[in-house]
């Protein structure tokens, strides 16, 4: 009751209201900074502890002095400036030490030591400030209220620290701020209730209300400036920190090159969609996109151009999908798309077709015309699966099917594709075993002179008989060997053994060996050829390496270097399957080609198909004008052979003239031909 009377009758209520506003504002800002201090470590904690102590000390000191200036007495009053400054320093330093204790790892010790230190610091500030309040009269103290004020400030300090160390950001700040405000106000007015003054007789009272009002306003403004500085620092730092965290989060969830969602974000989104599917039955589609012929762009034009192409592709994919769908780059030239709300495979197929069409459009990057395409495989949830692993697997299987079927197309997952993949995996395992066990053999298809009909050489053809599958066609296992990186090893072994076999043939017979596009890009190929010739003793001019037009498309500069080095060994180069690929006269001009082989697809339509006849006739004339030998392959009828001879082709091969046979059988064939010629 005495405390209420003290506030209402012994104080100017405007001063009390000003002090209360300062107390509440300062307390809320102070606990915000306290919380930040305890969350930091190292030098950052020291900085925030200093800022917190300055803010809390200024707010507490201003609350005390504004309320004290509002105390109404009939005796003259003066202020000791030194003690006034000392009281402010006590509040700041004491609260700072209290914060250090409040940050200790031991929670109980932190609450007791930190809360008590801050509470006693506020009490010391108050009593030193009261000693600075010089009144011309007899001062009386009621020790009961003094004891109560000390209990209030210590208990309030410990409760505030206890709340500070509890979770709940916003609620914690309000509750801890309220406790700190009650502690400061309770201490001040409990102590002021203990304080009373009896004026001395004969000393007149001077009205200091205007001076005290000005002082209170000045103190409030300075304190608010300090509190505002502390809060501004916190807000700016928090905003900067939030922006940095957002930037780091963005980097962690997005591809740095294309700014698309990365694999991590894609995985999270896919898992979330699968969860929504199970809860609410919300369907969606998953499309996997892989670029066709992107590696040659990187190899020939460089990675900066390749990166620019990927950025263009990312932009095109974003245009191709619907608003709200997510495009992600999983790595390299592989992308994924989540189509939300797609209920049927027809809609997903339309979206896949649009993606294929847009990616097929040429683009100009740094002055280079880039032509590539994309293959798409897709699965629809829940039709093709309802968990992330199955959907990714099924979309990948569909993508593999699209690339196997010629690329630049799209495929939807079907159960039958699983069996294709199983066979493919089985073939891959068997092929690796075949390489380790040297299960490959060589068959030789005779090549005959068109004019004389005599054997002029043979083409070495690799054969594989799998223990489980039986004979496997090169058309089936060579592409797999290329993808597995085994073709160079297989090709080198075939070349070595074929050169060794050919070295035992009569000197007039030549050997032709096929070289795959992957081998042609291997810079070690010239050394492999030289070693095979050296080990076998075969003369270089008897060896001819057959390449295809598509092999020259991948990296023509690298292919030119390799073929030039091989030609310098004395080995001849022939262009196989001429007319079926990207036929260009520039190849015949730029590359060291000495023979053209007419593809069997034209030969087998002879002599009735006028178009094929015209093409064969044109190739034969082209070879003659360029002084190149011409070989027609795939001859199966007498009519075809007659037509070829009439066009002046130099050599022929096919089932009509001779099937591929083992090395021993070819040697016998050569021996019989020699005996016939001798007789």
Automatic annotation (TrEMBL):
Keyword tags: Membrane, Transmembrane, Transmembrane helix
Ranges where the GGDEF domain occurs: 282-415
Source domain of life: Bacteria
EAL domain: residues covered: 424-674
Transmembrane segments: 12-34, 46-69, 81-102, 109-131, 143-161, 173-195, 215-236
Domain MHYT: 11-198
A GO MF label: catalytic activity
Keyword Membrane: yes
The name this protein goes by in its record: EAL domain-containing protein
Organism whose genome encodes this protein: Aurantiacibacter spongiae
Organism ancestry: Bacteria, Pseudomonadati, Pseudomonadota, Alphaproteobacteria, Sphingomonadales
